[in-house]
TrEMBL record:
This is Peroxiredoxin. It comes from Paracoccus seriniphilus. SUPFAM superfamilies: Thioredoxin-like. InterPro entries: AhpC/TSA, PRX-like1, Thioredoxin-like_sf, Thioredoxin_domain. Residues 8-160 form the Thioredoxin domain. It holds the Pfam family AhpC-TSA.
Length: 184
C-alpha cells in the first residue's frame, strides 16, 4: 500500500542522531551537515519506489554535495520482518549503487519517529540553520521510474535552499512504501 507523508512543516528543526553506517562508523548529524543545507532521506533496500529512483538519487546527491549540501540515507525498517533491509544487505545495496553518502541503520526506529518519517522514500531538506524547507517527492516517478527528463524536484529544491535558505512553497509529497514498524 502506498503512503504519502504530509507536506513540509516549514522551519521545523532537525533532530540529533547517532547511527551506525554501512562503512562501520557511527554518524551524528554534525558529521553529515552541509554548509549550505542537509538532505536526510529515509529509504530501504526492498521498496520498489526507492529501487525505481536509486540511481537518480545517487547521481543527484553528487550534485548536491558539490553545492555544499550534506546528504545521508537512513533505513529504519524492522529487519526481523524484512531481513532484506538488514545491515549486511544495506552494505551490499550501497556498494551496488555506488553510494557517495553514508547509509545509516536506525535499528530502534527512534530517528524515524523523531523526524516523523512515514514512507520510503521520505525526503527532509534542511537549510544551513537546520530548519526544514523541503518535504516533497524526488520527481514524478512512482513504483517505476518516470521519464529520464522528469523534472528533478528534489534537486531543484535543495539547490534553491543552498542559495537562498528557503525551499519552494509548492511541494508535492513523496509517495512510497510505509516504514515497516516493529510490533511493540
Amino acid at each position: 500500500m502506498a503512503v504519502s507523508p504530509p507536506v513540509c512543516d516549514f522551519d521545523a528543526p532537525w533532530h540529533e542522531f547517532a547511527l551506525p553506517a554501512t562503512d562501520g562508523k557511527i554518524y551524528r548529524l554534525a558529521d553529515i551537515q552541509g554548509k549550505n543545507g542537509t538532505l536526510i532521506m529515509f529509504i530501504c533496500n526492498h521498496c520498489p519506489y526507492v529501487q525505481s529512483i536509486i540511481d537518480r538519487i545517487v547521481r543527484d546527491a553528487e550534485v548536491m554535495k558539490r553545492a555544499g549540501i550534506g546528504v545521508v540515507a537512513i533505513s529504519s525498517n524492522d529487519v526481523v520482518s524484512y531481513p532484506q533491509d538488514g545491515p549486511e544487505e544495506m552494505k551490499a545495496f550501497a556498494a551496488k549503487h555506488g553510494f557517495g553518502f553514508p547509509y545509516l541503520h536506525d535499528e530502534t526506529q527512534q530517528t524515524a519517529r523523531d523526524y516523523g518519517a512515514e514512507c520510503t522514500p521520505d525526503f527532509f531538506g534542511y537549510n544551513s540553520d537546520g530548519k526544514l524547507q523541503y518535504r516533497g517527492r524526488f520527481d514524478s516517478s512512482k513504483r517505476t521510474a518516470g521519464p529520464e527528463d522528469a523534472r528533478p524536484e528534489l534537486l531543484e529544491a535543495m539547490l534553491q535552499i543552498a542559495t537562498t535558505g528557503k525551499g519552494p512553497q509548492d511541494q508535492i509529497p513523496s509517495m512510497g512504501c510505509s516504514i515497516k514498524w516493529k510490533n511493540t
